[in-house]
Amino acid sequence: MRAIVTRVKSASVEIDGQIVGQIGQGFLILLGVGPDDTEKECRYLAEKILGLRVFEDENEKMNLGLESVNGQVLVVSQFTLYGNCRKGRRPSFAEAAPPALGEELYERFLQICEELGYPPQHGQFGADMQVASVNDGPVTLILDTHQLMETPRR
After folding, report:
1. Is 79 an annotated catalytic residue?
2. Which of 37-69 are b and which e, b meaning 16 or more Cβ less than 10 Å from the residue's Cβ?
3. Catalytic residue of the set 6, 27, 72, 79
4. Is residue 109 flagged as an active site residue?
5. Which of 72, 78, 121, 145 is catalytic?
6. Which class for 25: exposed (0-12), middle (13-18), buried (19 or more C-beta within 10 A)?
7. 97 torsion bin: left (phi>0), alpha (psi -120 to 50), beta (else)
8. Residue 54 and which of 37, 61, 62, 138 are 20 to 30 A apart at CA?
9. The pTM is what?
10. Who's near 58: CB < 8 A, 6+ residues apart?
């Protein structure tokens, strides 16, 4: 699984002109699922992200986590994180999970966030969404379970 995690002052996701998810301070998480991903990667990534300490303390050091700042979470499915741009000018998305698996693990990721005490706001899998955010810092991190868990790529 891959995630782009952005520390935000606020973020929202809109579908068909309606805001379906909105947060104040916290994390905007763009989440992509690969074809070999399982619940193991899903849980690992959720725990890793929700445990990140990237908010500044009184000494202006990134030392505080979501809990310390009463942060919120907005999760948006993003299969394009598996876009391959090595050849030509049009990305290939063959490395992304099939839609059924992608949706299953996206929904499971949302459940795990809730279980861990961060009920997420979220978009809708497969929908055409408009995402807005006010980045804080900016602080943006790329997390890939294949690198984090030292799982060899297939």
Report:
1. yes
2. beeebbbbbbeebbebebbbeeeeeeebebeeb
3. 79
4. no
5. 78
6. middle
7. beta
8. 37
9. 0.93
10. none
